[in-house]
Specification:
Layout lengths: L1 H34 L6 E4 L4 E6 L6 E5 L6 H4 L3 H6 L3 E5 L15 H15 L5 E4 L4 H6 L1
Parallel strand pairs: 3-4, 3-5
Antiparallel strand pairs: 1-2, 2-4
């Protein structure tokens, strides 16, 4: 019985070390990844809370792009050329809880819609297309 107990304790110790090692690896990876992110995003401090976004200077035929889960404004930026080739100007946001858009800015779909409306008002956009991917789909439908 003591041999089995020792094996079990040893196995638990190995599992803990592996989990700790993976956590350290993740922290290092995340730190390096964040250093390499594009610097051309803006954080707008609305009356409801902060929202991180990116858009082109001359906005014509705007489309609000809401990323999936997980995701961010940076993932959306991969699609910028596709929208541009279609004659659309992408307004990309980090949804609440991602990167520099804190979760309290929009915990519910209704709050998220209000947050996006405040941003669009600041940008002077009265009408646009909405494109929601995966986890961004419900917020796109609500908006």
């Amino acid at each position: 019985m003591t041999v089995l107990l020792n094996v079990f304790i040893g196995l638990i110790g190995v599992i803990i070390l592996v989990i700790f090692g993976l956590w350290v690896f993740f922290l290092i990876w995340r730190n390096n990844a964040e250093k390499n992110l594009p610097k051309n995003t803006i954080v707008f401090e609305s009356s409801q809370g902060a929202i991180q976004f990116h858009t082109v200077k001359d906005i014509t035929n705007p489309v609000l792009v809401l990323h999936g889960t997980p995701g961010s404004v940076f993932v959306n930026m991969l699609f910028e050329d596709i929208f541009s080739d279609a004659g659309l100007s992408m307004v990309s946001v980090s949804r609440p809880g991602y990167y520099q858009t804190p979760l309290p800015s929009g915990k519910t779909l209704q709050e998220q819609s209000r947050l996006y409306k405040l941003l669009l008002d600041k940008l002077g956009i009265e009408s646009l297309f909405v494109f929601g991917v995966s986890g961004g789909g419900p917020a796109a439908i609500q908006f």
